[in-house]
Design goal:
The chain is an alpha+beta fold. The protein contains 9 helices and 30 strands. The strands form 9 sheets. Strands 8-5-9-15-12-13 form a 6-stranded antiparallel sheet. The protein has a 4-stranded antiparallel sheet with strand order 4-17-10-14. Strands 21-20-23-24 form a 4-stranded antiparallel sheet, with no helix packed on it. Helix 1 packs across helix 9 and helix 6 packs parallel to helix 7. The protein is globular and about 65 Å long.
C-alpha cells in the first residue's frame, strides 16, 4: 500500500475519529445524526471497502463487458426553498439518521414535490447555483427527476447499480418512488444497488439534494464537511456524471494493484481481485499485465481497455475459484517483472486485465491502469524511485465560468495539459477530491497529486466539541473520505 506522511492535518482527523462523543444541545438530546454507510470489512485477512450492500468500486468504466445507461443531459429540477424547514428531533431532516420514520417523512415529501408546480428543464451534470445564473449562490434543497428505460435483458439475471460521481452535499435517491439510499459528502462518488427497484420499460429516478449553507446554524451545529465559508464557491446539485451500470450476478467488483520493489531492486506486484457471486459456483480467473499504449484517442478515454497492448504481455496467471455466495477475494503475486518505472518525465503505464469465466462463458472482465513507482521521504528530501524530485506545483480549483464545478472531460484534460505545458509536475487539487478523470489523466500525463479532503478549521474548540457531539460524523465523514480516496485512487500513480 502507499505510504503517507503524517501531518498535523492527518493527526487532527485521527483525533476526531478516536475521541469519544459528548452530549449535544439539550433541545435535541434525543436526536440521532445520519450515519455513514461506508466501512472496511475483513475477507480472508484483506480489507474490502463496502458502501451499504455494495462493494465500493474504483469507478473505472468497463464497456468491454458491461452495459451502461448514461443519465446525463435532460433532467427536471425543482428549487425547494422551504425544504430545509423539516425538523426531526431538533435536527434538520437532511442530517437525521435514516430511520424508517425519517425515510417515510422524506418519501411523503417526495410525493408532494412530484406534484408541485415550478419544475424546470435542465441539463445535468450541472451546478445548480453557478454564478451569473438565475439561482446564483442558492444553497438549500433541490429535487431532480428523470426517466430512463431498461429492457427485459437488462434486468433478468443482472445486478443494476446507479452511480453518482458527485452530488453536493447530501443526497437521497428514489427509484420508481421507492427509497434506494442516501450519501453524505459532496466530493466523493457513491453507488446504490437498485436491482430490486427497477423494471423492464420505463423507470424514474428522483434525487433530493440538500446543499446545506456554509456558516449556517445547521452547518455549524452538525457540523458538516466543510462547515465554514472559505475562498471558494459552494456549488450544489448533481454536478458530476451519473449513470446506470448493469453487470452479471457474478461479477468482478474491483481490482487493486500494489507494486513494490524487492530487495534485489526488481519490481513485483500484488493483484487483488474482489468478486461478488449470487451462488456457489466454480469460475476460472485469469489475470494478465500488459504494457499500455495510448493513442491520441485512447489518451482521453475514461476506459483503459482500448490502451491495452495485447502484443506486449508482461505476466499472466490462471486459477480456479470456488466462489461462495457474497463477496470473494483472490490475491496473486507477480514477481521479478521486467517493467519501466513511472515518473513525471516518463509516465510509463501498465494495464491489469482480470477475466472471470464460468462454464466456458466470460462472465465479466475488468481493466485498470497502474504503474511502478516508489515514494520515500529521507530527512528533508522527497525521493521518487530512489532519486530526489523537485516538486514544481500549481493549485487548481474545479471551476469554470457559468459551469461552476460541472466540468466536461475535455476541460479537465486541457487544464492538465496546461499544467504540463508550464513545466509543472505537481498538482494540488484544491481542498477537495476532484472528478475521477483528473487522476486518470494525471497518471497518463505524468503529474503528481497533492490530494485533500475539505476538513479545515476544526481546531476551534467550540466546533471541535460539536463535531464530537455528532458522534458518528463528521469524524466518520472525514475518515470515510480519506478511505474512499485511498480505495478510489488506489491504482493511481500521482496520488500520495
Amino acid at each position: 500500500m502507499r505510504s503517507f506522511t503524517v501531518s498535523a492535518f492527518t493527526s487532527l482527523i485521527i483525533a476526531l475519529i478516536i475521541l469519544t462523543s459528548f452530549s449535544i444541545r439539550s433541545h435535541a438530546e434525543s436526536a440521532s445524526f445520519v450515519r455513514s454507510r461506508f466501512e472496511l470489512i475483513d475477507i480472508n485477512g484483506e480489507k474490502v471497502p463496502v458502501q451499504g450492500d455494495v462493494v465500493y468500486p474504483d469507478f473505472v468504466p468497463q464497456p468491454q463487458s458491461r452495459k451502461y445507461v448514461n443519465l446525463s443531459d435532460e433532467w427536471q429540477i425543482l428549487y425547494d426553498k422551504e425544504g430545509s424547514n423539516i425538523i426531526v428531533n431538533g435536527i434538520r431532516i437532511s442530517l437525521a439518521e435514516r430511520t424508517p420514520e425519517v425515510i417515510s417523512i422524506l418519501t411523503n415529501d417526495m410525493h408532494r414535490k412530484l406534484n408541485a408546480n415550478g419544475w424546470l428543464r435542465i441539463s445535468a451534470p450541472s451546478s445548480n447555483n453557478a454564478r451569473n445564473t438565475p439561482y446564483s449562490g442558492y444553497q438549500g434543497v433541490t429535487w431532480y427527476r428523470r426517466v430512463f428505460n431498461l429492457s427485459k435483458d437488462d434486468i433478468e439475471g443482472k445486478n443494476v447499480f446507479i452511480v453518482f460521481h458527485g452530488v453536493n452535499y447530501i443526497a437521497d435517491v428514489w427509484i420508481n418512488k421507492e427509497y434506494a439510499g442516501f450519501h453524505e459528502g459532496g466530493f466523493t462518488p457513491f453507488v446504490l444497488n437498485i436491482t430490486r427497484l427497477v423494471k423492464a420499460g420505463r423507470n424514474e429516478v428522483v434525487v433530493r439534494v440538500d446543499n446545506i449553507p456554509w456558516d449556517s446554524d445547521d452547518a455549524i451545529y452538525a457540523p458538516i464537511v466543510p462547515y465554514k465559508k472559505c475562498d471558494w464557491w459552494n456549488y450544489g446539485g448533481i454536478y458530476r456524471d451519473v449513470y446506470i451500470e448493469i453487470v452479471n450476478r457474478t461479477y468482478i467488483a474491483r481490482v487493486d494493484v500494489t507494486p513494490y520493489r524487492e530487495s534485489n531492486w526488481f519490481w513485483s506486484a500484488k493483484v487483488r481481485v474482489v468478486t461478488v457471486s449470487d451462488r456457489s459456483v466454480n469460475a476460472e480467473l485469469n489475470i494478465c499485465i500488459y504494457r499500455a499504449s495510448f493513442t491520441e484517442e485512447a489518451l482521453t478515454e475514461w476506459s483503459v481497455y482500448k490502451a491495452i497492448d495485447f502484443n506486449s504481455k508482461i505476466a499472466c496467471s490462471a486459477r480456479i475459484l470456488n466462489l461462495r455466495p457474497g463477496m470473494n477475494i483472490a490475491v496473486e503475486a507477480f514477481n521479478n517483472l521486467n517493467v519501466e518505472e513511472w515518473s513525471p518525465e516518463h509516465p510509463h503505464l501498465y494495464i491489469v486485465l482480470a477475466q472471470l469465466t464460468i462454464d466456458g462463458t466470460v462472465a465479466d472482465s475488468y481493466a485498470d491502469q497502474f504503474g511502478f513507482r516508489e515514494v520515500k521521504v529521507e530527512e528533508n528530501r522527497v525521493l521518487l524511485n530512489g532519486a530526489p524530485v523537485f516538486l514544481k506545483g500549481v493549485a487548481r480549483h474545479e471551476d469554470y465560468p457559468v459551469l461552476g464545478r460541472a466540468l466536461r472531460p475535455e476541460m479537465i484534460f486541457l487544464d492538465l495539459l496546461l499544467v504540463k505545458d508550464i513545466g509543472a509536475n505537481f498538482l494540488r487539487t484544491a481542498h477537495y477530491p476532484n472528478h475521477p478523470l483528473t487522476y486518470i489523466y494525471a497518471d497518463r500525463l505524468g503529474i503528481l497529486i497533492w490530494e485533500e479532503i475539505p476538513v479545515y478549521w476544526f481546531d476551534r474548540c467550540w466546533v471541535f466539541e460539536k463535531a464530537l457531539a455528532r458522534g458518528n460524523s463528521p469524524a466518520n465523514v472525514s475518515r470515510d473520505d480519506l478511505q474512499r480516496l485511498q480505495q478510489t485512487f488506489d491504482n493511481h500513480l500521482g496520488v500520495g
